[in-house]
Amino acid sequence: MVIGIKDAAKLTGVSIIAFCAVLVCTMFLNFNMDIAGIKEEITMPQALAFYEAQVSSAKVVSMVSGGCLLATSVVMLLFYIRHYIDIHRKELGILKALGYSNLQIARNFGVFGVSILIGTALGFGGAFLLMPLFYEIQNEDKILPEILIHFHPVLLAGMVIIPTAAFAALAVAYAGCQLRKPALALLRDSFQYSGKAKRRGKERDSDREFTADLKKNTLKSKKTLVFFIVFASFCFSSMTQMSFSMKELSSVMMGAMMLLIGLVLACTTLFLAITTVIRGNTKTIAMMRVFGYSQEECCKAVLGGYRPLAYVGFAIGTGYQYGLLRMMVDIVFRDIPGVPAYEFDVSMMLISLAAFLAIYELIMRIYSEKIRKISVKEIMLE
């Protein structure tokens, strides 16, 4: 067995994202199915308009949050599989040299579906624990008749069973594609740079130019990590700003849920990205220290290129939450009386930006200390 449960357990980030996606989607979709059963009891025009708004909002939230988190889970899963193959090239090359086929090796990657099973199962169970409070808040004005909570097997299949099987199959298929290399190529343990080399008329001996080139190459060689950095700041920006608006537009519970999910997703993806960047550049950092580069110069060369991208992600998240809330208020809830108008909250954006800068720079400082503790001797003995 090439891959074990311990390896699958490292996909904690995938499990967390799956948990958040299933938690939100299960609550809203289950609520949708249950209120569909009382539609015939609704006779008042105001109640009917409220019913339609609830159905539309549940669909929008499920599609937007579920779709976004699904795409992130897929990217994170594929990234980890590729990363696993990169760091175990020699072991996999030996297996291929011994006569194992790509399929025989790749099918072991199906165990990564366990991470999805854990996340979706916990999210599905957690949704039912929160449903009594969620149903009460959704109908706190008693506009609709009493809504009872029912268990829908189709949701269990759609939220837990099918995603687990689909992600396991995706892991096997993607691993099979990545293993389509000769055994000798894997045994050489050589990594090819995907970008085109630029011709230089003369060698660059300036430290500033060297660190700038290293910063660019770090970004180019790990494009997936760029997505994670942008997504982390996007989640923080959109969810924190949206959570405070939800106190007025929906409920305190929805605001707290969005805030918690945003912080969890941001910290998880940021942790994964920065940890992978540092691990992938340990030898480079060790050599820089040997040649006299300071800790600050090492940090700027390896991590500095991601800072502008984090700000871009924050800006995208700000625009996203504003557009989504305007759509909810102007389209979904336009026929519901008493819904407050939504305007962009500049003060909340500034508070969110200040909190993001503080947290991001704190994380960068923590990881700069990790760079300082990298042992040159241990790297050289590998």
Largest sheet: none
Question: Outline, from the CA principal axes?
Answer: flat
Instruction: State the order of secondary-structure elements, H for helix, E for strand.
Output: HHHHHHHHHHHHHHHH
Q: Which bin fits the share of residues in helices?
A: over 70%
Number of helices: 16
In round numbers, the mean pLDDT is 76
Contiguous runs where pLDDT drops below 50 for at least 5 residues: 190-205
Q: What's the end-to-end separation, in Å?
A: 25 Å
Radius of gyration: 24 Å
* Assembly state of the chains shown: single chain
Total strands: the figure is 0
Kindly estimate the percentage of residues that lie in beta strands according to DSSP.
under 5%
Q: SS-based structural class?
A: mainly alpha
Verbal overview:
- With 382 residues, the protein is mostly helical.
- The chain is built from 16 helices and no strands.
- The protein is flat.
- The protein starts with a helix and ends with a helix.
- Mean pLDDT is 76; it is low at 190-205.
Please supply descriptive tags for the structure shown above.
mainly alpha; flat; 0% strand; 382 residues
Brief digest:
This protein is an all-alpha fold.
Blueprint of the fold:
Layout: H1 5-9, H2 12-36, H3 45-87, H4 89-97, H5 102-106, H6 113-138, H7 153-178, H8 183-187, H9 207-221, H10 223-249, H11 252-280, H12 282-290, H13 295-303, H14 307-332, H15 346-372, H16 376-380
